[in-house]
Each structure stands twice: as structure tokens, then as C-alpha cells.
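Explain this fold:

***
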Amino acid sequence: MKYLIVIEPTATGFSAYSPDLPGCVATGATRQECESEMREAIDFHLEGLREEGASIPQPETSAAYVEVG
């Protein structure tokens, strides 16, 4: 499965979250590190949901850029 992640710069590096997986977040000093950490966070999050017997959310969120001005 592919989940959309949003990566944002912070004062100390980068942070990321997935709109389809509330509470699943990660940080990193670089964008690449943050993305890698987020991949691990998603794996961990989904593993926890499976262990609890909860349903796995299907990826539904999409993103697009719009040109203005």
C-alpha cells in the first residue's frame, strides 16, 4: 500500500505525518531521514493496529498543486 505523507520543514529539520493514519508521525534532521523514519513509523503503526485487531485504513488522501497568480 502507498500512503500519502506530508513533510514539513521545522526549526531543527523536518517532520511528517500521514492524513490517513492519525497519530502516525516522524521527524528527522534531513528530508531523507524524515521520510525513512516515516516509513518505519507507518510499518509500526500498522503492526499495532493488526495486533489490536483493528481495521487497516485504506489510503484515500491525495494531493495536488494548483497554480495561482
Observations:
- The first strand starts at residue 6 and ends at 9.
- The first helix runs from residue 31 to 52.
- Residues 6-52 form a domain with the Double Stranded RNA Binding Domain fold (CATH 3.30.160.250).
